[in-house]
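Hi, here's the filled form for the chain we discussed.

Project: internal
Contact: R.S.
Residues: 94
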Amino acid sequence: MEKKADRVIITVVGKDTVGIIAKVCTYLSNNRINVLDISQTIVQDLFNMMMIADIGDSSKPFDVCAKELAQIGQEIGVDVKCQREEIFDKMHRI
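And the returned structure, exactly as it came back:
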């Protein structure tokens, strides 16, 4: 079972194009980051995806993964953000 400290929220937003999910999920798989939950929608040509993932088995630290995911987003023309779940929760508390 994953520890809450190992859980991250990954968001991907931008113009829809072929391969967005494949690029992000390939990176996650190659770095032993497990997708726990995923939601994805496309409204007209705008892509939006939110994932909860477990980075506990990754050999890379969180900050490196977050930076590399953001770089992948730049390469494919979308905005990819990775936040620790506890930070995400505090930012989105009503």
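Let me know if anything looks off before we file it.
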